[in-house]
Amino acid sequence: MANHAKYCPDALIVEQLYSGKWLVEPSTGNIYSKEINGYLKQNVSSGYPRVDIGGVHVLVSRVVWIAVHGIPELSLLQIDHINENKLDNRIENLRLIT
């Protein structure tokens, strides 16, 4: 999976979640890492918080969504912030849109 994951951010996210390395708190949008024994640092780029997986930056909103609902079936779907606050990655603030 690691080779495929290099080219597919969703696969990288799933790998971290299913291996138990990351724990997501859906009510806060925070991501806990067992490897560092603490919360992952979220870097903001273009207004959206991101975390790093081996040099690949992934959106925190996507990590939270995948942790709760799995990978969206259609690649055209994007994760939207209902209240338009890009920093608010609580699951109740996220939805899929086209």
Care to describe what's here?
It is a single chain. By secondary structure, this protein is α+β, with helices and mostly antiparallel strands. The chain has 3 helices and 8 strands. The chain has a 3-stranded antiparallel β-sheet with strand order 1-2-3. A hairpin with a 2-residue loop joins strand 4 and strand 5. Helix 2 packs across helix 3. The protein is globular and about 35 Å long. The N terminus is likely disordered.
Helix count, DSSP H or I runs of 4 or more residues: 3
* Poorly predicted tracts of residues: 1-6
Helices and strands, in N-to-C order?
HHEEEEEEHEE
Residues in helix, %: 25-40%
The major sheet is characterized as: 3 strands, antiparallel
Instruction: State the separation between the terminal residues, measured CA to CA.
Output: 28 Å
The best one-word shape is globular
Report the C-alpha radius of gyration, rounded: 13 Å
- SS class: alpha+beta
Strand content: 25-35%
Number of strands: 8
Strand order of the largest sheet: 1-2-3
Overall pLDDT confidence: 92
Short description:
Helix content is 27%, strand content 32%. The protein is of the alpha+beta class and 98 residues long.
Entry keywords:
three-stranded antiparallel sheet; 98 residues; disordered N terminus
Please describe the topology of this protein.
Layout: H1 2-7, H2 9-18, E1 22-25, E2 30-33, E3 38-39, E4 43-45, E5 48-53, E6 56-59, H3 60-69, E7 78-81, E8 94-97
Helix pairs in contact: 2-3
